[in-house]
Amino acid sequence: MFGKKGSGGSGGSFGGPARTAEPAPEKLDWSEPESEASAAANEKPAREPQSGEVPLPKPPEAMSTAARASSARYSAPGPDKPRAKTQRNDVYYDTKMQVFSALIETIDLSQLAKLDSESAREEIRDIVNDIIAIKNFAMSISEQEELLDDICNDVLGYGPLEPLLARDDIADIMINGAEHAFIEVNGKVVDADIRFRDNQQLLNICQRIVSQVGRRVDESSPICDARLPDGSRVNVIAPPLAIDGTALTIRKFKKDKLTLDQLVNFGSISPEGATLLQIIGRVRCNVVISGGTGSGKTTLLNCLTRYIDGDERIITCEDSAELQLQQPHVVRLETRPPNLEGEGEITMRDLVRNCLRMRPERIIVGEVRGPEVFDLLQAMNTGHDGSMGTIHANTPRECLSRMESMIAMGGFTLPQKTVREIIVGSVDIIVQAARLRDGSRRITHVTEVIGMEGDVIITQDLMVYDMEGEDASGRIIGKHRSTGVGRPAMWDRARYYNEEQRLAAALDSMEVAGS
């Protein structure tokens, strides 16, 4: 990640060859254009050129970098309170490049690596302040603080990503090469107003992220899934597959774990529907959560797991660990990609099959994508009631078809009717989630799988979401309603767990509320 000064290692990728000090421009335009009167008032005479090169400050003997240790961890942008964000322009990034290049030429990264994160940050700030003074850059205190934070993040953290990772209102971060970054806020995708120095810096940061979980991304292995220490999901696709520079996507993991009550407040589900989901989790129904990309499947899965008893042994299988179960008896498993020789891969199917030897009471698969669905269905059908998983599909009926297709992908030569019988015998409930066109997320169906008629799987909806239009601001208006099923197929299971009265009350009140 970092190398010694002049070693030609990765340290050189942070800014290229150092620049000698040059006369500063008369005034740096940091954000919006100034009026002529304001510009005249703030104008300063240019500094007289110095003969020869201006020496940059030398670091103290004891200086060093928490780079390798501390840069591998995500840290917040620093102890300072966040400042109001200003629109940045080319002048800001040019100034940052000059200061950063001078810093890399001056600092000894091998020594900086020996300091803890806070000491390293202070050391960098001191040197950058000296560089700004020597180069005579004209900037306000707030502008200088912003620049200091950015450069500290470049050296010790995830560079321009740091302020985005620190924000709780961002759901997704999407980087399309060094100069194009977008974020999803409140269901809408907007420009992130950040920029990387070049594609090499972006790739370096991606390598820093994935190395924390023992993975790599480079030309020989250009696609990688990983996670941040807080559980945020990361996907990287690098050149030559990404033509315009490395593409980085981060699905942020909220620090505050959502509950069904909060989903009710957001309008994602009605109070009666939330009670229905609580009962489904409590009575150990086998549940598949279906939905498109970004529809909230993993969030909903986390919510449902809150209603699992604390004395149950739960085993989770994921590509990138992001589930956060609160029960004490949880084993978390994660897949592993092959090494450089193409060996050592551990697939999701390997994990699910191994789970069956670990005496699980519930198996939870973060996302079912392939033949492992067969092993999960077998587990659901052989005494591991209450198992759960998510799948990409747009409707409950499509979810069933996707499971059939995934089993066929595994090379199983089973008759179609047999496959459908396995699905019917394994899955009790399909919960359908959707991201609507206004950016809101709704639970649109709670559907029971009740049996077969001939070769056709029979389902019945317990709850659906009806869209009724949109308001003046473009927000979709709708409501959740019961379909009028008085005695669902899960009734006997609910009675076994003494939940039949709550179930009946939830269905009745949902029917009244939806009428």
UniProtKB/TrEMBL annotation:
<dbReference type="InterPro" id="IPR001482">
    <property type="entry name" value="T2SS/T4SS_dom"/>
</dbReference>
<dbReference type="InterPro" id="IPR027417">
    <property type="entry name" value="P-loop_NTPase"/>
</dbReference>
<comment type="similarity">
    <text>Belongs to the GSP E family.</text>
</comment>
<dbReference type="InterPro" id="IPR050921">
    <property type="entry name" value="T4SS_GSP_E_ATPase"/>
</dbReference>
<protein>
    <submittedName>
        <fullName>CpaF family protein</fullName>
    </submittedName>
</protein>
<feature type="region of interest" description="Disordered">
    <location>
        <begin position="1"/>
        <end position="88"/>
    </location>
</feature>
<feature type="domain" description="Bacterial type II secretion system protein E">
    <location>
        <begin position="158"/>
        <end position="422"/>
    </location>
</feature>
<dbReference type="Pfam" id="PF00437">
    <property type="entry name" value="T2SSE"/>
</dbReference>
<feature type="compositionally biased region" description="Low complexity">
    <location>
        <begin position="62"/>
        <end position="76"/>
    </location>
</feature>
<feature type="compositionally biased region" description="Gly residues">
    <location>
        <begin position="1"/>
        <end position="15"/>
    </location>
</feature>
<dbReference type="GO" id="GO:0016887">
    <property type="term" value="F:ATP hydrolysis activity"/>
</dbReference>
